[in-house]
Amino acid sequence: MKEGKLDFEDLRNIILNNKTIKRKEVKIRNDVGEDCSIIDFGEYEGIFSTDPITGASENVGKLAVHINCNDIASAGGEPIGILVTILAPTSSTLQEINEIMKEINEEAAKINVEIIGGHTEVTSAVNKMVISVTVIGKNLKGKSVKTAGAQLGDDIIVTKTLGLEGTYILINDHKARIEKILSKEEIEFGSNLINKLSVLREGKIGGEFGVNSMHDITEGGLLGGLFEVAMASNKGFKIFKEKIPMLDITKKVCEEFKIDPLRLISSGSMLITTKNGGGLIKLLNESGIEASIIGKICESGALLIDDDIEIEVEAPKRDELFNI
Questions:
Q1: pLDDT confidence tier of residue 319, bands split at 50, 70 and 90
Q2: For the chain, what percent of residues have pLDDT higher than 90?
Q3: What positions does the domain PurM-like C-terminal occupy (predicted)?
Q4: What is the topology classification, in CATH, of domain 21-140?
Q5: pTM of the model
Q6: Which of the following CATH numbers is that of domain 147-323: 3.40.50.300, 3.40.640.10, 3.90.650.10, 3.10.310.10?
Q7: Taking Cα atoms as reference points, which of 247, 240, 251 lies closest to residue 293?
């Protein structure tokens, strides 16, 4: 099999074929594109999500914290604690494991999240460090936002710019090649993109505003995120290429590696659908968060408009990082 997440249909079939028990406390269940599961605990809802870091080699501890806590933000909730699993290859050193845990601790402290448990082992089953984090969050009962909530006619909004995480990973994991196409200033700027990967602020604002759907843009990039929202909501989408915000260095890096930036992992950007896109963007801008309306949720289909030409797009099979 090829590296990367399973494609949507394969994953959905596995989920549907292995969902025997349904408890009444579970209000939102696992499904393709649904970032979190929601459990009713009375006055509050518990929000749960888990994800590994497999596509990066640098700053994996920092990435692991933010990528997982972003899932809680996409539900409009507050992350409370994380459980960390580290699988280290036999070539690892104790110092390397200590450095990763130090990094995880520092990042968790910045967003007031406690490390509440986990597991660490050295194993020949992996050939590089694998970090998997499970995050637990909370929200007031009835206030959590679903990926599957997108409605016909919703504005489609993305925050910040696309490809932040992918650009950071490529710059840091392919330094020799990157030095041939980017200036020192561009490389320094790109290396600092890791500090823009949290979407906790836009998640809080979106939740309080009352949006219909939120989804952090991870593997598969913007198109992957849109397909997940559309599939979960039983809707389609139409987006306009000229309205998609993207850094020049992201375009340069993607051109160098011959990959599609719209299918590149994009943590740091939140995908939001709402009836009042202009009102939400005003609130986000007032909080110093850039945001753009890039299209609309429609009845069906998946269209990218490029210079007035309608292009039917297919769901990404895997993230572009794995095509290099």
A1: confident
A2: 80
A3: 153-301
A4: 60s Ribosomal Protein L30; Chain: A; (3.30.1330)
A5: 0.89
A6: 3.90.650.10
A7: 240
